[in-house]
Structure formats: C-alpha cells, structure tokens
Amino acid sequence: MAAHSAVLSMSKIINPFWGGRLGNTVKVFGTTLTSHRNKTLLTGENIPPPAKYGGRHTVTLIPGDGIGPELLNHVREVFRFSCVPVDFEVVNVNSALETDDDMNNAITAIRRNGIALKGNIETKHTMAPSVKSRNNLLRTSLDLYANVMHCQSLPGVQTRHKNIDIMIIRENTEGEYSSLEHESVSGVVESLKIITRNNSLRIADYAFKLAREKGRRRVTAVHKANIMKLGDGLFLQCCREVASGYPDITFDSMIVDNTTMQLVSKPHQFDVMVMPNLYGNVVSNVCAGLVGGPGLVPGANYGNAYAVFETATRNTGKSIAGKNIANPTAMLLASCMMLDHLKLYDHATMIRHAVLKTMNETRLHTADIGGQGTTSEVVQTIMRIIQSGGQLTTEL
Amino acid sequence: MSPAVMQTVTLIPGDGIGPEISSAVMKIFEAAKAPIRWEERNVTAIKGPGGRWMIPPDAKESMDRSKIGLKGPLKTPIAAGHPSMNLLLRKTFDLYANVRPCVSIEGYKTPYTDVNLVTIRENTEGEYSGIEHVIVDGVVQSIKLITEDASRRIAEYAFEYARNNQRTSVTAVHKANIMRMSDGLFLRKCREVAENYKDIKFTEMYLDTVCLNMVQDPTQFDVLVMPNLYGDILSDLCAGLIGGLGVTPSGNIGANGVAIFESVHGTAPDIAGLDMANPTALLLSAVMMLRHMGLHDYGNKIQTACFDTIRDKKVLTKDLGGNSKCSEFTAEICRRIQDMA
User: Fold this and answer.
1) Which residues sit opposite B99 in a β-bridge?
2) pLDDT tens readout for residues A319-361
3) What pTM did the predictor assign?
C-alpha cells in the first residue's frame, strides 16, 4: 500500500491537473500511465496534454450512424439539464466519408481527452475489403483491450428469465477481429485468428481484478480449445495461470457451444465470464437478449490510458433511426458509467436512478421492450424525475 | 396397400447408452412396421494399410451400399491414438452439411415456445480446418478457411432443403463487417444461389444480431445457413431453446447421396446399462431419416406417438422429469403406434 500511495503522490506531482481524473487506472498503472501519456507513441505522434479547465471535463463525442446521433443528443440534453460539468467535443465519423482523416481526428481527440462516448459507425461490407471497420480501428489504435458488459435483469422489464446478473469481459483487440485476410488461391480465402500470450494474460488479469473489486465469486473462461487446440488452448492456459494468483475466486471453463446452451436454459449459474473476441460477441449478445434487448445494456471499452463508452451490443439501428422510437436507456446508462469513470459519482447516481425509476416504476417503455412510449417521452420523464429529486437543474 | 420395399439402413449403435437407445428405436420401428432393414456396424477406427487410420471396411461398404446411416453417440478417444470417429466419418463420406431442425416439444416445457427453425451448418472447413501455427513464442495463429466451392455447395443444399420441406425463407448468418473477405465470399455465394430460388425469401443477418434476436423471439427465424463455427454455436443455442441435446435430432448430409442421422448428446457412461436413457434424440433423428427417405407417413406416425407420450407426462424418463425406465418409455410409444394403426 505504501508503494501505491507513493506512486499516486508522484503522479499528482507530475500531473497536478488531472492526477485524480483517471480513477482506478492511476492506482494500478501509476507512473507508467503518466509517462505513457507524455512520451511519443510507436506511431511517432505526440500526444497532446489532457484537457480540463475550470473544473469541467471535456469528453469526445462520436455520434456515428443510425440512432447514434439522436441518442447522444438526448444524453447532451440530460447532461445540460442536470448541470453536469462535462463539455462534449463532437467529432463526426460516419460511413459516408471516404478518407481516413476523420478517423485520425477522432483518435487524436480521444487521446487528448482520454474519454469518449460513441454511437456505432456502420461498416458497409459492400465496399472493398481494404476498408476496415472503423469501430474496430478505433479499438485497436487506442488499445482498448477490455470490453466490459454488466447484464442485469431489470424488474420493470418482462423477460423469460429473471434475476440475471452476469459480467462479461471480452478481449477487444485481437482474436478473430485481427482483419488479416488474404485470397491465397482464387476461390480460397484465409482469415487469420491471432491469440497472443500477452493479450490473453492481460485480459485474464483484468477479469480477475474486476471480479475481486466487485466481490464476485466465480470467473468462467469461455473457449473452444477442443478444436482450436493451440489458439484457444493458449488463452485457457493464460487464464489458469492468472487464476492461480486469485485463490479466493473460483475459476472454471466452458466450451462456447455448451455455454450458449446453458445461457438459454440456466443463466443463473454464471457470474463473471472472460473470453476472446468472437465468443465475446456471441455471448454478450445472447446475454443482452436475455435481459431485455439491445436498448437496455451499456458497455464500456477500457484500455490502460483511454476509455470509450457505448451501448453494449453496438447496434446501428438503421431501421429505427429518426423515428423517435429508439430506447435511450442503454446510451444514458453508458453515459453514467462515463461519469463514474470521471469520478462525478453524484451526477452519475442521480441520472442512473432517474433512468431506472422510469424503467421500473413508471413503466414508460419504448417499443423494443413492448411499450408505446417515444424516445422523447422517456427522456422527458427522466428529466422530470431528476428535477423532483431536488438537485440543481435548469428550467425544464 | 402394397407392402413397401424394404430399405437397408446402416445402424451404428455407438458407446455408452448407444446400444440401449438403438434397440429402443428398432423396437419402435418394428411396432410401426416401417420397411427398414437394419445392418449393425461398428466404426471404431482401425489402422489401414499405409498406417492411416480409417473406419473398418465392412462399415464403409455397408454405408456406401445403403447410403443411409443412423448413429448413436460415440465416445471421444483420449489415449487411443486415433482421431475422433466423428471426424473420421465426416472425412470418409464428405459429410458437408449438418442439419438440425429445432421444434419446440409440446409437453417438455422450456421458456421458449413455438420454436420452429432449422440450422444448416457447413461442416468441412471454416474455423475448424485445424490449421494452427505458433508464429513466435506466445503468438498463435489459427487459420479460418472459406472456399467458393464449399460455400456454394452448402448454400445450394440449404435452398434445396427449404424447397423440399416447404420452408419459406433462408437466412445467411455471417460477420462480413469484420471478416470482409472470408464471410464476404460466403455471402456472395449464398446470394448467387438465391438467384436460382426466387420462390424462397433470402435474407442476411449478422451473427450477433441473430443471437440477440434468437433469445428474444426465435419465431422470426426459419432456415439458417452459415459457416462452421457460427453453425456450431447457433445449433447448440437452438438446441438449448427446445430443451437440450437429449431431445434434439441431427442429420449429416454428404456428397454422393450419403446421409447419416445421429443423436448429438454424449455417451452418458454413468447411466449406461441401467435402462435409464432417453431415446428421444435418436428417435427424432430416425424420424428425420424416414422423411429424408420419403417415408413421411411412418415418420409422422412415430413422431406423433413420441410427442403424445411426452405431452401426457405419465411415462417419462428421468431427464424429462419422470421416473420411468427407458424400456417403459419405449413400450408406451409402441403401444400408441399400435393403437393408431
């Protein structure tokens, strides 16, 4: 502990302005973090110093496509109404633009601010394969290696299974999403799935640390090591190594196809789950479906230096864009996670409480969970609850 | 009614509970007077000339002749030195399509009702090519292989199946936003084949969207076609929706008209020989086999008897929630079939 406080005070000396802003990451990564932020990266870019003036934080906002822009507008509305000391720096990245400039601007902005809130950017797969997914590019450039999703059943939402509480930690940078493909012979395509020891250890470490922090009892690794013996075998081995350092937490593993079968029949057996990229995609979508759908669950992508918040299932929602029927819950809860990360706990609690009260008590639901409310009605109700909570607000 | 021509089927009882559930199925077929002649064979791998592992020649000969097989669960060899028998069978007969119809069983309650979909999974390539390398210490690369021919073949099978079984739509499941070239190729082939089947609706959906929607509303899906890994995950997910592997049928279609139908559960060594096993999965796979052979009447009769028995809840095996023996369950189904005639 003495070492930790020494590290903390040292980081405060080096960076008095934002010493406390990065929450837990400072305690764990201390000086590595501060020196990382100030030295040139492998790409040769200079990272600009972080932005925070007059007690207000600046957060990068990427509206994206589909329902992203309208939901993020609602987030801004709620923040403005609740006097949250956050300013948004909007960077428009969407699938319509052809060049890479907008992506580079977005990445630089996130490096400057350290935090972002984003909607999903559509990947038109009718374009040439050399045009990669922009969401993926963002995650790998910023090394946001952990995707964390907390699936909890909400009492006000009708689902087939009740009382689900599962945390899913998904490796976010490698695995099947390496985007390394080639056509070796005409008509034969190879796609490479990369698993490395470093990244597997890193994500397993993150999972166990988080489990301990949140008081969770069990971590389950999801894999397919009976078929992909070397790749998933390495992942599993790394998880076991890390598990041995946490004797207070039970560790077990399960094959991915059995996992999905168990999730739809007996989801209560799962506590914390850790897995490589693609299985994470499948399992997180299954769990989101179990608790009520894509409109309810927030997600976060964490790296050592940066954090990006979005909805957990990353849907563009093209078919419901502009119709005022999208569910704002997931995006609002994601923004609350962001506020927690910025240590603005009071504001986070206030907004989260209002969102959950609207969901569970007033039963004002949008169409995706079987109601008839519009997005604006739900947001208005949330703001009304915030106002009646007695906190300082602007005029409704 | 003229007596139907007897058709030969190669029966592979398997290990563990395999023999008892196979004999249960044979009894039920006898009660239904189905025109099937069973030829029992063992497929434990032997070393052929040249040192390569292969299935016994009499099993191969029987299957090549009859073209239809029914298989119980095979145990996975750990120290036997030879590869898994399932893999061997797949390679020997080029079983390229794995078909799993998932229909909710009335009487076996799960949180999901009215499920009625079919997953068709490409079974030879994709992520299960088994090609892996250690590049440097600590970095492993697994290769996912997608070829034009295999993708076209599975797409054609999917549309043919849809047409022959009066299904209205086929959905290709993919992740072409991330795996642009490989899943992109798969998708392109599906689209090309769809052009020749204008009577069937063709849609495409991302894997994650399918998972998300499947657990919320499985009734929106009809026939799903996809590469190997996604097929593995989704077919087990769908099996979970209707009650698990103990009640799910499965069929493997090969080149040259070979088709092997099997139960996909394990060998359950702890209850082997105790007359406790549930033959439903193997029975429903046998029903699938009858339909494949064009013997729909017999298939429907046996399926109805089986579902009625489960719905009645009086005689159920332990895994279905009752405490009857396997033989009692079988006898009840036979009784119902005889009453129907």
Assistant:
1) B120, B251
2) 999 999 999 999 999 999 999 999 999 999 999 999 999 998 8
3) 0.87
d(CA A268, CA A254) in angstroms, rounded, equals 15
Backbone dihedral region of A179: left (phi > 0), alpha (psi from -120 to 50 degrees) or beta? left
Chain B: give the shortest CA distance to residue A190, in Å: 5
Q: Strands, E, within B104-247: which ranges?
A: 116-122, 132-136, 139-147, 169-174, 201-206, 223-226
**pLDDT reported for residue A21:** 45
Instruction: Tell me the pLDDT band of A24, cut-offs 50, 70 and 90.
Output: very low
Q: Could A265 and B244 be called an inter-chain contact, meaning their C-beta atoms sit closer than 8 Å?
A: yes
* Mean pLDDT on B130-148: 92
Cα–Cα distance measured from residue B132 to residue B144, given in angstroms and rounded to the nearest whole number: 9
What is each CA distance from B283 to B8, B209, B266, in whole angstroms?
A: 17, 33, 15
- How distant is the alpha carbon of residue B143 from its chain centre? 26
* Residues of chain B contacting A230 with CB distance shorter than 8 Å: 132-134, 140, 142
- Closest to A318 (Cα-Cα) out of A75, A73, A78, A95: A95
Question: CA-to-CA distance for B160 and B35, rounded, in angstroms?
Answer: 26
C-alpha A356: how far from chain center: 19
Across residues A56-63, what is the average pLDDT?
A: 93
Classify A66 in phi/psi space as left (phi over 0), alpha (psi -120 to 50) or beta. left
Distance from CA of A13 to the nearest CA of B (A): 37
> Residue A99: exposed, middle, or buried by beta-carbon count in 10 A (0-12, 13-18, 19+)?
exposed
Specify the range with the lowest mean pLDDT, choosing from A3-12, A56-65, A202-211, B296-305.
Answer: A3-12
| DSSP conformational letter for B95 | E
Number of C-alpha atoms within 13 angstroms, CB side, residue A19? 13
Please check whether residue A166 is in contact with residue A125, taking contact to mean a CB–CB distance below 8 angstroms.
no
Say if residues A375 and A327 touch (Cβ distance below 8 Å): yes
Contact A195 B140 (CB under 8 A): yes
b/e code B262-297 from CB counts within 10 Å (16+ = b): bbbbebbeebeeebbbbbbbbbbbbbbbbbbbebee
The string of DSSP letters for A208-231 reads HHHHHHTT--EEEEEE-TTTSTTH
Closest CA to B292 of B5, B69, B42, B124: B69
| A343 and A147 Cβ atoms separated by less than 8 Å | no
CB A65 within 8 A of CB A94: yes
**Tokens standing for residue B232:** 């593995």
Enumerate domains of chain A plus CATH numbers. Answer: 50-122+132-147+297-386 (3.40.718.10), 160-291 (3.40.718.10)
Burial of A54 (0-12, 13-18, 19+ CB in 10 A): exposed
- What ipTM does this complex have? 0.90
Nearest Cβ partner for B144 among A129, A193, A196 = A193
Task: Provide the percentage of residues in chain B whose pLDDT is more than 70.
Answer: 96
A280 in contact with B at a CB cutoff of 8 Å? no
* List of domains in chain B: 1-107+243-340 (3.40.718.10), 111-242 (3.40.718.10)
In degrees rounded to 5, what are phi and psi of residue B176? -70, -10
Q: Which of residues 46-75 of A touch B (CB under 8 A)?
A: none
> Do the Cβ atoms of A87 and A344 come closer than 8 Å?
no
